[in-house]
Known about the structure:
2 copies of one chain form a homodimer. Chain A is of the alpha+beta class. Chain A has helices at residues 9-21, 35-46, 65-85, 90-95, 129-148, 160-166, 192-195, 215-226, and strands at 2-3, 57-62, 106-112, 150-155, 175-183, 186-187, 208-210. Helix content of chain A is 41%, strand content 15%. The model of chain A has no long low-confidence stretch (mean pLDDT 95). Chain A starts with a strand and ends with a helix. The interface between A and B is large, with 122 and 122 residues.
Amino acid sequence: xxxxxxxxxxxxxxxxxxxxxxxxxxxxxxxxxxxxxxxxxxxxxxxxxxxxxxxxxxxxxxxxxxxxxxxxxxxxxxxxxxxxxxxxxxxxxxxxxxxxxxxxxxxxxxxxxxxxxxxxxxxxxxxxxxxxxxxxxxxxxxxxxxxxxxxxxxxxxxxxxxxxxxxxxxxxxxxxxxxxxxxxxxxxxxxxxxxxxxxxxxxxxxxxxxxxxxxxxxxxxxxxxxxxxx
Amino acid sequence: xxxxxxxxxxxxxxxxxxxxxxxxxxxxxxxxxxxxxxxxxxxxxxxxxxxxxxxxxxxxxxxxxxxxxxxxxxxxxxxxxxxxxxxxxxxxxxxxxxxxxxxxxxxxxxxxxxxxxxxxxxxxxxxxxxxxxxxxxxxxxxxxxxxxxxxxxxxxxxxxxxxxxxxxxxxxxxxxxxxxxxxxxxxxxxxxxxxxxxxxxxxxxxxxxxxxxxxxxxxxxxxxxxxxxx
Lengths: 230, 230
């Protein structure tokens, strides 16, 4: 058993600092990512919680520059299709930098494991809990990367089937992320989508209800969107 | 811009310590959870990344003891149904403590926001990215809780529709978690499902492939399950 005591103040501060200063990065300086750091990030990911301990995360390191180019092309293609689907927000969207695949030093594809249907614990009514577990693994990696001074960006602008084909994945292994990792010149002081006026941060009080759904809080929480995406 | 530098060694250590010593807790000592700590945990959750910055997480604090009892009953019911579905693993499963709703000091229901279909950025091909964002929020809360010396357990043994009804939620707000929070006597030294021999931790090297899917690594990663759940 590990003793229950809380971390000391300085260590608590470090954890909160990683949480509050973590950013979804799209700008990298192209410097190499130290292999020892990358291994620590994988270990952090692999220490994530998972439903029934199924450990559903799989990582593919993309090292071939030809594959990186093809992956970049697939993300560019989906970026255009998304832009068209956004109608009025199309121009604002196309001004954003939405990925850093060719600028970063390490590209990872994260996928859910195949044969997930055999895992029932915690998933009988909510089969998507495997994705939740894999997201926790990526969040661990993100926070560890921030502590290491390394940027990480999660890109989900792709057709999963196209990635399955590109990386010869089984049909029941679902890609959920393209991660761009590497040294950065600086971390954004606010999430880039706030800096670029794409969205605003909602007020926390509107996200916490008591004992029952609260429609008036929900209306407030939805409000920052009415001035932006819709 | 925030300077790019890595955290110092002691602060890095704190972040990794939270990551490696975080546990999915089911045992609580029933002591109250300080309100100031809970607020910091909510702030940590709300600092999570989210796809297109949609901030899809919603929290319902369950303070009514009647609602806690009803929630407990719903989880108990699904636990029995899951046990039946597990066939050969039924007895092993029923020996596990799978929730701490009546023992912990704070129960939260986490749900995805309604009207998610209006958010297209990063979700056109992968609409489930909103769940990934909410899972990152819970992971932030989990790590902050560990630093605060507070236990957190994520329970997904429930019928989402039953929770929607219990908390008068809109039909398009999907509950994804019942979180149990509170002081604990000690954190498990290994994930409880490992301590209880439900599952083993896979070897990290089998979870990291290069440039292409690797069926032999996958077979190794799946192997720890052949001795347990199947």
